[in-house]
Amino acid sequence: MSSENTSTLQSYADSASSAAQSALGSITGNTADKQQAANKQSEADAKDTASHAGTSIGGVSLSSSGVAQNDPNRQAGSWDQTLGSAKETMGNLTGAEGLKQQGREQNQQGQAREAQGQLSDLGSGVADRAKGTMGGAVAGAMGNEQAQKDYEAQHDTGKTLQRGAESDINKQANA
């Protein structure tokens, strides 16, 4: 969909094409076909990797498809966790059990709020990708180039939100 052509579907199609060309090279003994297949497979692998890359920085998600504004709960939740941890640390240092408990609760509430934002971005990202793909196909078939571009933008924004949320969720799972 995007101009960088880092579509996951395209990478799968290229990988299948590579496998077919490699099989043909093996049957015919043509080393040039085998080498072209290996090159095509490497390109497909690179496209797949780029298609799945994403991160989230300062309230936005970034991917090969662009930049998208995150759900505000993600950043607010992260901030609550930071403040909660600071309060908990101060409570530990000063022996103030109330401050320590307040910090622990704020940290937990921040975690829940950030997770809510991540799930929101993940769900809306998947939905926007599907709507963008389907709408773009229909608009393309009907020859409506502007609508097709609009749907491609919707797809790309959805992909960016999805990849940013996935990146954050994976970081937290591996921490």
TrEMBL record:
Listed Low complexity bias regions: 11-23, 54-66, 104-118
TM helices/strands, residue ranges: none
InterPro entries, sorted: YjbJ_sf
Biased segments, Polar residues type: 1-10, 24-41, 67-84
Region (Disordered): 1-175
Superkingdom of origin: Eukaryota
Residue ranges, compositional bias (Basic and acidic residues): 147-158
Protein name listed in UniProt: CsbD-like domain-containing protein
The organism of origin for this protein: Salinomyces thailandicus
